[in-house]
Amino acid sequence: MSLVNYIDAAQQYFDDLVIKATDDELFAGGYLRGHFDLAVGYAQVEELNLEIDELNETVEKSLVKAYRNGELNEEDKALVVRLWEEVKALA
User: Fold this and answer.
1) Closest CA to 30 of 90, 68, 79, 91
2) Series of mean pLDDT values for 10-residue runs along the chain (91 residues)
3) Coiled-coil segments, which residues (predicted)?
C-alpha cells in the first residue's frame, strides 16, 4: 500500500467513527486524528518522503509525549491505543 492510500484509508476510518462510535470512542478518535493529521501535515510542509512505518513512528512519538504530559486518563489512553492499532492495521 502506498502512503497516500494509507492516509486516505486512515481518514476514512476516522470519518466512519462518526457514524458508529460511542461518545468515548469519538473523543479518542478525534484525539488520535489530531495527532495523525499533524504528522501528515508536517511531512507535507517539510516535503518529507515518508514510508508508512516512518509516519506511524512520528504519530507514536507524538502520542507518547502527550501521554507523558498527562493529557489523557488511563481509560481514554486505552481507547486511543486500541484505535491506533486499528488504524495501523489498515496499512
Assistant:
1) 79
2) 93 94 93 96 86 95 95 94 96 91
3) 38-65
